[in-house]
Automatic annotation (TrEMBL):
Coiled coil: none annotated. The chain crosses the membrane at residues 68-88, 108-128, 148-167, 173-196, 203-221, 241-259, 280-306, 326-346, 355-376, 382-401. The keyword Transmembrane applies. Residues 1-24 are annotated as: Disordered. One of its GO terms (molecular function) is UDP-glucose transmembrane transporter activity. It comes from the Eukaryota. GO terms for cellular component: endoplasmic reticulum membrane; Golgi membrane. This is UDP-galactose transporter homolog 1. It is a multi-pass membrane protein. Belongs to the nucleotide-sugar transporter family. SLC35B subfamily.
Length: 437
């Protein structure tokens, strides 16, 4: 049988090879070299904008930079929500109701209402801004793995415990002192990182802590009678005890923030909306369980040992609201403002720079103090204003130095990527030359 000439076979370029299943693949080095510009742009974009931790699951919003309208809405939303939130918080916790001057004493109930509204708004935000990494059309899972449950439970417990201590401190200190101290969250966070995680910080952070501590000390030592009508109630106040309760509150806040950082770094990708939903759902379950079970635990030996009140906070709070309906609307408004404010914070963090968020947060707390002084009649002395300046000056300096540190890291990352890109192109070119030979 005569031999037939086979048709000429098409030779693929040397950077392409075919497997037995007929699928054509590109050579790894050439493909990687072609992807380098896109990888570099993506990396530089991520370094240039400090998004919320774990925002890799967030839906793409386009390549266009955020406009001025977006900026105005974001900043205005934070100011409006949290200034209203702070004003309602002070009014709820310090107003005397009725002829007997009854005051609101139900922090766990207030915390439960707030976490319910925050969980609901977090779910809406989760559905609107995230997508499942493996199931298109579905939001990111709130609890992606069972291993994340213990740390989430821990931050839910610490955040739930922090609020009662903070609200109790307001019975012994004024709201201006409360806001000023709450602005110093760097102190407990650094303390816990140094003691628990054995982490070391740059020298400038220790200087900032010293500056802020000096400012708070000046403000507290020169406080005296800081309210126009404080003379009637000053006998019932123990400032040292109030500061101790506030210190416990800050310690729980610092532990919450430290564990949150650990969750974001350990369970990647885990986004802000997922954290917002998970923490508020678990906090609601914890505080609601306490409200329902406390009347049954209080009469026991354990309840009396830890000093639980024999009454039911849930029924007492509902009775208080029924007696004074105005406080009920304040509680709902407080919870709504807090929930909306959290959404605006996460949106601002994922859309703009972290420096903008820090600037807005610091100025918002300053405006909160001014609003408290003007609306509720607080008086601040000259040396106290110096203490305020030291606190917010230290916080502002820390934000600027953090920004410089991030920019330096971004430049180093850019240089490394460019170096790696050159090496990959060189290797790809050498392989091409060998194949042609």
């Amino acid at each position: 049988m005569p031999r037939t000439k086979s048709p000429a076979m098409r030779r693929e370029p040397s950077e392409i090879h075919s497997q037995s299943n007929g699928i054509v693949h590109r050579d790894g080095y050439s493909e990687k070299a072609e992807r380098i510009p896109a990888m570099l742009d993506q990396k530089l974009a991520s370094n240039g904008k400090a998004g919320a931790p774990g925002e890799t699951v967030a839906k793409a919003t386009g390549n266009d930079p955020p406009g001025i309208l977006n900026l105005i809405i974001s900043v205005g939303g934070i100011y409006g929500a949290f200034l209203s939130w702070a004003w309602l918080q002070e009014r709820i916790t310090t107003t005397a109701y009725g002829p007997n001057n009854d005051k609101w004493r139900y922090p766990v109930f207030l915390n439960t209402v707030q976490s319910v509204f925050a969980a609901l708004s977090g779910l809406v935000y989760l559905f609107a801004r995230t997508s499942h990494p493996h199931k298109p059309g579905r939001p990111a899972p709130i609890f992606p793995t069972s291993k994340i449950l213990p740390p989430l439970l821990l931050i839910s417990i610490t955040s739930s415990l922090a609020s009662p201590f903070g609200y109790s401190s307001l019975q012994h200190i004024d709201y201006v002192t409360f806001i000023l101290a709450k602005s110093c969250k760097l102190l407990p966070v650094m303390f816990l990182h140094v003691t628990l995680f054995r982490k070391r910080f740059p020298v400038h952070k220790y200087m900032v802590v010293a500056l802020v501590t000096l400012g708070v000390s000046l403000f507290t030592l020169h406080q005296g009678s800081s309210k126009k009508h404080s003379s009637k109630s000053s006998g019932n106040k123990n400032q040292a005890w109030g500061l101790f309760l506030l210190a416990v509150n800050l310690l729980f806040d610092g532990l919450t923030n430290s564990v949150q950082d650990n969750i974001f770094s350990t369970f990647r990708p885990y986004s802000g909306p997922q954290m917002m939903c998970a923490q508020n759902i678990m906090s609601t379950l914890l505080t609601a369980s306490y409200l329902l079970l406390a009347p049954y635990i209080a009469p026991t030996f354990f309840g009396s040992y830890i000093g639980m009140s024999p009454g039911s906070e849930l029924s007492s709070a509902l009775t208080f609201i029924k007696t004074y309906p105005a406080v009920g609307w304040d509680v709902v408004g407080f919870a709504v403002c807090g929930a909306i404010g959290q959404v605006f914070i996460f949106h601002t963090l994922s859309t703009f720079s972290s420096l903008l968020l820090v600037t807005v947060t610091v100025t918002r707390k300053m405006l909160t103090m001014v609003l408290s002084v003007l609306w509720f009649g607080h008086k601040i002395k000259g040396m106290q204003w110096l203490g305020v300046a030291l606190v917010f000056g230290g916080i502002g300096a820390e934000a600027v130095l953090n920004r410089r540190e991030k920019n330096a890291k971004a430049k180093a990352a850019k240089a490394k990527l460019l170096s790696d890109a050159g090496q990959d192109r060189k290797i790809a070119a050498e392989r091409e030359g060998k194949k042609e030979l």
